[in-house]
Amino acid sequence: MTIKPADRCNESERHAIEQYELYRRLDVQYQSGSLDASRREEYRLLDNLYRQGRIAAYVSYTKPFWFYLIYTVFVGLYIVPGGLKAAAVTDTIQGVLIIVFSVILIPLSLVHVGGWEEFAARIPDEMLFVFGAGNNEFAWNSIGALAVLTLVGITGHQGNMSLYGAARDELTARIACVGGAYTKRLLTIVWALCGLFAYALFADVISDPDAAWGILSHRLLGPGLRGVMVAGILAANMSTLDAVCVYLAALFVRHLYKPFVPDKSQRHYVNVSRAAIVMFLLLGIYVSVSMTSIIHLIKALPSVNIIFGAPVLLLLFWRRLTLKAVYVQVIVCAIVLAVLPQFLPALSSVRLSDWLTQKTDAHTAVYPVQATPEDVAEGLAEQTGQHIKKPVAVPSAPIYFDAITSLDPFDPESPPVGMGRLHTELILAHWLGFNLRAMTPSGLLTVRYLIALILPFVLLIPISLLTHDKGLDKSIAYFYAKLKTPVDPDPPKDALEVQKSRADPTRFEHTKLFVHSNWEFCKWTRTDIVGFLISVAISGGILILFWGLIRVIA
User: Fold this and answer.
1) What is the value of pTM for the model shown?
2) Are residues 148 and 2 part of one domain?
3) Are 249 and 327 contained in the same domain?
């Protein structure tokens, strides 16, 4: 939304933009297998320049470092003194902004495109497939693996216990949890629809998909509304940033600082928490400036979340989990899934390793597409728009890095160099005997997620069975009794119920599905059953809505 017009760019900036636009055109031809052999060297050069960040679709007036610094200062001004209450109040206001400005672009886009039928006619058939082809990372297998990995990882999300623990009672927490999750799913469909409108209206203008929302807003909204849209976008991020900082600061003080500095006043711990919020905000600036691709970050996050998601999930349902197992698992998985992938690429020997810069073998996959006039002329279809299957080129893809480019993009003989995150999960997969070179991009991502999913449990379960938490039996029994104690909205009554559970940790033993076992699965109550059925119904409704929307467009 702050793109510098072409006439304001200097010569080098205009040249970089022109090279990027040429690169996108050649990339489309390369992906379809129609790129002329005489232009492949030119394509390779531009591809290297793009991956090194030396050409881009646009130049922005906004300087990332200064933007993040000023933005973070404003977030800190209300979150450091206000804490969780400030986050709750601002999140309510910002949530309304997010919903309004997620929806407002749709009717405006429909008017500009000329109606629903014209919009549907401009959308290529392959953009409406739920799953990608073999040349796309997000096919049915990788999406399935991502769903399971996310389901486990979200259990240990730093905000869950603080957020839902702040609710007045358990039913409020449940409704808020489920309602918030489904609202996000509906907004995701809205955002996808806005992306399709951006393609239908400005496909010849938007060379970088990341610019779609900004260009759509800039072209459709008038002065004033553009500023409010920017406010809405910033609100979407603020509502996450402020709450997460409060959660992290609370966890830091309670579990890392307080055990080493005990017996201090409440005011002391609050002040330390505020200092921790500042520390996390500064860390956020560093991550924002240093990360070159939001897509690469999104793909890496599930492997990080699983580090704490796996032990928290087991903790809720398996009494036999031991502290020693959790320590070992968190340390090992943090090193393998979080530390090494980020710090090893800093070593030139790693980035330039012949083995780590391998790519998959290029091959061809058959993929259903909509017939073009050229397909009809070649006898591949009877009419334009008919669904046919055509071979699609699956180019070679990096295995162990996010991207691979030439050390010197202008020298064809220069050695390949890895860029971005090092996928340690795939190194483990290689050692386990997987033939990674023969896989598609979606296959690589699937294996990567499955290794991250399985590794924590391979450590947690055997180590727990071989060890025991001596001296913690009473604390463990009280933990599960308190976990099953219903929250009363009246604090004195709630405190009394907690005291009863402390005095008799076995008072809820009869609610367990497997009585006198280490498994803590509880029998469902009427509220559980009704809530589950409502959730299933809403899930089905959202899927039907999504499917129906795709069919209408198609």
Assistant:
1) 0.80
2) no
3) yes
